[in-house]
């Protein structure tokens, strides 16, 4: 009996220090991080390893259930949820997720049962109660009215100052005709209102008047309009997140063990034994400034110095310094910048005698090119204090910010052609002594903070489009001596650290809930110190002891203070001797410890080598653009981007301000996961287990390329092409203008065989997967029956004026006689048939979408005309530019990409122009048609040339005969289902550089917020037939991750000898999130037919928008899903409470 009892007893959790347990911790938290990226398969495998190793761990089974649910595999999700409940029967989070599972399956009663059990198990969790509230309403709001009110009463106790809770209370009270409760809720909202505008306040007052009169029917709509007004405010958004997850999240992942011991988050203890050993750098002894420099990507950084009127790089390289060098110089006098995109840093110098730019040559020598920059001599020879690199205009290259000794700073905008232009963007600055450029409010665009000579700080918030504003509520600081940037409390927001003139260290911390700033002291000033001045004070935020938490270094010529931080983000000062002014910090000797560089008390050049008593680990990472050709969307070393790492529970975020970013890891052996947000807003994740290296190359993926169309043939779902390519909103073509919308109606063909009826219904999907918002006004499907041996085509060009989109019936296309590039290379075999093999008959420039001028020569051969004409059929795809690239090109001497200029042989050995601009393919897998009837002056020489500088890849170039239209039978099919739902993101396949990124519908790589979504109201999930039925400016608004499911009833099989192709008519607009797209951060303003221009008023409100004013009921019945990019910003923060930078 004893043996039986022992063999069936529950196993004990492992010892927390065992290898197996530590592996489980690593796998669990790597999986959680990977689940926030596009590595869903890797995340699943790592979590599965935990579940198999420790089947008692319910969190692993529940998370596997969520991952399966996100893939749409509900059978597996149900099994995993059941295993989680068996392992932890009464766990609130497991019960809560079980309710979410049944809710998504449509089993409302089971969902309610589990939500009730979860609320009983964790009665203090407001999100569980709100899930129950939502599901009770979904089941039967009348039958469940009493319980709904009880749940709301509980929420009001748990969240007494939550605007969203009191709004719901008002809504339910109005529906239930509960006048006292309605008045109470409205008055409570009035007490809590913060950040509301005058219209919202007046709307609330009107609602109170209706409530007092008992006019419940009038309140119903007006209450929704109140929510439309207040939902965009930071306080209301924060309150919503306190009671529910963002609408883009499918379930949630449990972030702590249930059965296994829970690891405690602590960064390693600070190494209070750190000491610095001075050494004199080789080849020099005295200097006005020492600074670390990383001039070549393949070489480590090294120390340079300014002395005797020169910047001295080594014994052979001395660059004249434009200023006095008989006193100590601030490190701002020198900046590294790869201004010409050749992956070698050039050097900018600023001094009392002017500004100089030295270009690094192939042999590593430097040339003064200041006089060739297009800048007037007066500017080059003015007196300056400092110079800083930054991508001011967000176009992908680095600009410079130049600070005169007196007066406001100004920007030198890199024109990308070897010249710069001056822009005066910061007029309220004076006598600036230091600059920091980073995204402080989490909107993705870098803001500027300027330290002035008098100790004051000025901040300019970046509104994009070279527009900046002084933010309201920025603290008045008049005693700053130095500034730095860092995420000192590891919450995902950069803070502004500054040293006071007395020697204290403080931070300005952005509070997103109130869109305000808090001033917080980190460290009091030590006694007996002389006042600090901006000209001779430096401040650094970095991990000095490699314990995994950022430290602070404050230095002047008299004293250096090193403040080490711990898990609680408190700071302790190292006991160090006074050793001089630190002007640069980097790893001098390559041992992954950060050393100090500067000058000693007598001006002697010194490097202080970092030595510690704890052997903590560290990792240095280089960011790099993908290459010098065909991109140019980010600067070469990612300056201005952000890096985040996660190792177990350790999270860090750092600004990319130099080519090398250093992370202390404490006792962790490696950075298990890295996420980079590149300066252009694209995101990339790397994992140690999947080959994370020391240099990260930017992946060249499109941020925007319109929604994607898929069709179901009964066996597979095929990618067809992209839609509404002709109607981009706010697409910038230069610094002042945006592209117009040439037409909102598009028609794309679906070839025969790729769409077949399934149970008598044609099944199509339209997915939104890029950094875009889509406004679909109308969708309809036309079935076209035509004889076997013919093909249906549409001229899918993008050109001004718009092409004729009438369907064309052609004979089955056949290869032309020959295709050659401009060098005579025969390309005929590659383009004989559309088989996915493409030609690229050009040389790339450094810009995506722009290639060197080139042409292909097409020999048509014998005519295939059957009496109605002969057509050329060109099939291929276009890699486009974007708003930022267009801005960059417009500032330079480069021309924008050109459309196809078509020439025909003139019969006399020359060429004549047939079409000056025939356009470009309108996206991926598109066809261009060209009528060849009568275009050749000499029918014996049937050659033509296609000239362009657009990046077009041709798959097939063929000819065909025009066939009678009477052979076609067209029928518009009735829609049986038009449903908007959330799906997530397809895996992208990119076999080689000649192919576009093609989505594989069969695999979902992520359901999390992949992009920094445009903020605003989107259409709620469900039936949207009413919105898509007509072209009437009532549209479905889609966000990234959404999917439209379209089903049309089949009219039956085609007649014998006939086959069926299709035309999808799609009407609407698309707007991408590129930082230079007009209004690229918001769903507003709303487009409409007939507008002369996409007019954008900064700070525009929904209630002022013409489309809203025409159809306000649509924001009651349809457009009720408010999306913010918060989940993207906080993706690697495991604790939901740290996702908000709030008290």
What is the fold named in CATH at topology level of the largest domain? Methylamine Dehydrogenase, Chain H
CATH superfamily of the largest domain: YVTN repeat-like/Quinoprotein amine dehydrogenase
The biggest sheet, with number of strands, parallel, antiparallel or mixed sense and barrel status, is:
8 strands, antiparallel
Cα radius of gyration in angstroms = 32 Å
Query: What CATH architecture of the largest domain would you give?
Result: 7 Propeller
CATH classification class of the largest domain: Mainly Beta
User: Which bin fits the share of residues in helices?
Assistant: 10-25%
Globally, the shape reads globular
Low-confidence stretches: 1-8, 1138-1143
Q: Which structural class matches the secondary elements?
A: alpha+beta
Q: Short description, anyone?
A:
TPR repeats lie at residues 58-91, 92-125. With 1143 residues, the protein is an alpha+beta fold. The protein contains 20 helices and 62 strands.
Structure overview:
- This protein is α+β, with helices and mostly antiparallel strands.
- The chain folds into five domains: 2-243, Alpha Horseshoe (Serine Threonine Protein Phosphatase 5, Tetratricopeptide repeat), CATH 1.25.40.10; 275-617, YVTN repeat-like/Quinoprotein amine dehydrogenase (Methylamine Dehydrogenase, Chain H), CATH 2.130.10; 618-697; 703-792 and 968-1143, no CATH class; 808-964, Jelly Rolls (Sandwich).
- Strands 44, 45, 46, 47, 48, 49, 51 and 52 form an eight-stranded antiparallel sheet that branches. It has a six-stranded antiparallel sheet with strand order 37-36-39-60-54-58. Strands 38, 40, 53, 59 and 61 form a five-stranded antiparallel sheet that branches.
- Strand 6 and strand 7 (346-351) form a beta hairpin.
- Helix 10 runs antiparallel to helix 11 and helix 11 (179-192) packs antiparallel against helix 12 (198-213).
- The longest helix is centred in the first third of the chain and has 16 residues, at 19-34.
- The model is unreliable at 1-8 and 1138-1143 (pLDDT under 50).
- TPR repeats lie at residues 58-91, 92-125.
- Pfam families: FG-GAP_3, TPR_16, UnbV_ASPIC.
- InterPro entries: FG-GAP, Integrin_alpha_N, TPR-like_helical_dom_sf, TPR_rpt, UnbV_ASPIC.
């Amino acid at each position: 009996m004893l043996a039986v009892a022992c063999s069936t007893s529950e196993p004990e959790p492992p010892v927390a220090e065992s290898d197996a347990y530590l592996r489980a911790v690593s796998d669990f938290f790597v999986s959680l991080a990977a689940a926030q990226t596009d590595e869903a398969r890797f995340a699943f495998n790592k979590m599965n390893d935990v579940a198999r190793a420790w089947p008692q761990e319910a969190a692993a089974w529940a998370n596997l259930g969520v991952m399966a649910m996100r893939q749409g595999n509900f059978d597996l999700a149900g099994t995993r949820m059941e295993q989680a409940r068996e392992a932890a029967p009464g766990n609130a989070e497991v019960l809560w997720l079980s309710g979410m599972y049944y809710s998504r399956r449509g089993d409302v009663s089971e969902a309610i049962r589990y939500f009730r059990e979860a609320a009983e198990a964790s009665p203090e969790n407001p999100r569980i109660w709100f899930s129950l509230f939502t599901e009770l309403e979904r089941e039967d709001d009348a039958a469940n009215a009493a319980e709904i009110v009880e749940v709301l009463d509980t929420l009001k106790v748990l969240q007494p100052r939550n605007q969203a809770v009191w709004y719901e209370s008002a809504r339910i009270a109005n529906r239930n005709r509960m006048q006292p409760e309605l008045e109470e809720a409205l008055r409570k909202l009035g007490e809590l209102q913060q950040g509301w505008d005058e219209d919202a306040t007046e709307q609330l007052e009107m609602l109170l008047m209706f409530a007092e009169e008992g006019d419940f029917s009038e309140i119903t709509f007006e209450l929704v309009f109140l929510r439309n007004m207040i939902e965009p405010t930071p306080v209301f958004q924060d309150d919503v997140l306190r009671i529910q997850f963002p609408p883009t999240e499918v379930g949630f992942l449990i972030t702590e063990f249930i059965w296994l011991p829970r690891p405690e988050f602590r960064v390693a203890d600070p190494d209070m034994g750190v000491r610095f050993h001075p050494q004199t750098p080789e080849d020099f002894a005295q200097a006005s400034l020492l600074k670390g420099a990383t001039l070549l990507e393949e070489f480590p950084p090294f120390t340079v110095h300014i002395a005797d009127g020169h910047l001295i790089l080594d014994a052979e390289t001395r660059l004249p310094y434009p200023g006095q060098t008989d006193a100590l110089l601030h490190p701002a006098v020198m900046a590294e910048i790869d201004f010409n995109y050749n992956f070698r840093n050039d050097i900018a110098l600023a001094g009392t005698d002017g500004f100089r730019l030295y270009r690094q040559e192939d042999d590593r020598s430097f040339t003064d090119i200041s006089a060739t920059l297009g800048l007037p001599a007066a500017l080059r020879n003015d007196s300056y204090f400092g110079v800083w690199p930054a991508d001011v205009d967000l176009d992908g290259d680095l600009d410079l910010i130049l600070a005169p000794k007196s007066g406001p700073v100004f920007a030198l905008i890199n024109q990308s052609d070897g010249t710069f232009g001056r822009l005066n963007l910061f007029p309220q600055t004076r006598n600036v002594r230091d600059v920091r450029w980073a995204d402080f409010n989490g909107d993705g665009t870098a803001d500027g903070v300027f330290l002035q000579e008098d100790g004051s700080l000025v901040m300019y918030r970046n509104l994009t489009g070279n527009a900046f504003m002084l933010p309201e509520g920025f603290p008045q600081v008049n005693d700053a001596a130095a500034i730095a940037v860092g995420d000192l409390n590891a919450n995902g927001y950069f803070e502004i650290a500054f040293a006071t003139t007395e020697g204290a260290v403080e931070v300005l911390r952005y509070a997103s809930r109130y869109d305000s700033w808090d001033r917080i002291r980190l460290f009091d000033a030590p006694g007996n110190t002389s006042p600090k001045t901006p000209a001779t004070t430096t401040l650094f935020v970095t991990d000095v002891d490699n314990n995994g938490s950022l430290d602070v270094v404050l230095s002047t010529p008299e004293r250096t203070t090193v403040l080490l931080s711990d898990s609680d983000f408190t700071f302790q000062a190292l006991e160090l001797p006074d050793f001089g002014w630190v002007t640069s910090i980097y790893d001098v000797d390559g041992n992954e410890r950060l050393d100090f560089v500067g000058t000693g008390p007598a001006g002697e050049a010194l490097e202080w080598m970092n030595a510690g008593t704890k052997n903590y680990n560290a990792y240095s990472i280089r960011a790099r653009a993908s290459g010098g050709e065909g991109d140019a969307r980010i600067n070469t070393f990612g300056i201005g981007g952000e890096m985040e790492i996660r190792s177990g529970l350790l999270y860090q975020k750092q600004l990319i301000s130099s080519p090398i970013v250093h992370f202390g890891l404490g006792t962790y052996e490696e950075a298990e996961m890295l996420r980079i947000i590149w300066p252009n807003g694209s995101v990339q994740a790397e994992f140690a287990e999947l080959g994370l290296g020391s240099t990260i190359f930017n992946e060249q993926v499109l941020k925007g390329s319109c929604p994607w169309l898929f069709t179901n043939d009964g066996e597979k779902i095929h990618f067809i092409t992209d839609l509404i390519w002709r109607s981009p909103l706010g697409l910038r073509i230069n610094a002042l203008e945006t592209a117009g919308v040439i037409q909102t109606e598009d028609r794309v063909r679906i070839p025969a065989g790729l769409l077949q009826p399934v149970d008598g219904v044609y099944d199509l999907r339209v997915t939104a997967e890029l950094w875009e918002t889509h406004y679909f006004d109308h969708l309809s499907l036309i079935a076209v029956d035509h004889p076997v041996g013919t093909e249906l085509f549409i001229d899918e060009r993008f050109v001004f004026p718009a092409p004729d989109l009438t369907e064309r019936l052609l004979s089955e296309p056949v290869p032309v006689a020959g295709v050659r590039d401009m060098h005579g290379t025969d390309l005929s075999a590659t383009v004989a048939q559309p088989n996915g093999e493409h030609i690229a008959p050009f040389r790339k420039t450094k810009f995506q979408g722009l290639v060197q001028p080139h042409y292909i020569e097409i020999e048509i051969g014998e005519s295939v005309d059957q009496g109605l004409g002969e057509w050329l059929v060109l099939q291929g795809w276009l890699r486009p530019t974007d708003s930022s690239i267009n801005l960059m090109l417009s500032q330079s001497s480069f021309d924008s990409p050109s459309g196809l200029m078509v020439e025909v042989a003139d019969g006399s050995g020359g060429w004549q122009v047939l079409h000056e601009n025939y356009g470009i393919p309108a996206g991926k897998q598109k066809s261009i048609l060209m009528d060849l009837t009568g275009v050749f002056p000499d029918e014996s020489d049937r050659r033509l040339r296609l000239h362009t500088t657009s990046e077009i890849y041709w798959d097939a170039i063929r000819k065909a005969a025009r066939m009678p239209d009477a052979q076609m039978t067209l029928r518009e099919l009735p829609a049986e289902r038009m449903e908007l739902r959330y799906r997530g993101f397809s895996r992208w396949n990119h076999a080689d550089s000649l192919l576009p990124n093609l989505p594989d519908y069969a695999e979902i790589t992520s359901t999390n917020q992949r992009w920094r979504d445009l903020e605003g109201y989107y259409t709620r999930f469900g039936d949207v037939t009413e919105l898509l039925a007509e072209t009437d400016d009532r549209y479905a608004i889609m966000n990234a991750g959404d999917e439209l499911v379209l089903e049309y009833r089949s009219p039956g099989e085609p007649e014998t000898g006939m086959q069926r192709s299709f035309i999808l008519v799609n009407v609407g607009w698309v707007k991408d999130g590129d930082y230079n797209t007009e209004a690229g951060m918001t769903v507003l303003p709303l487009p409409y037919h007939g507008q002369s221009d996409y007019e954008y008023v900064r700070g525009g409100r929904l209630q002022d928008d013409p489309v809203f004013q025409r159809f306000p009921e649509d924001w009651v019945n349809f457009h009720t899903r408010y999306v913010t990019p918060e989940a993207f910003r906080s993706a690697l923060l495991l604790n939901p409470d740290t996702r908000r930078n709030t008290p």
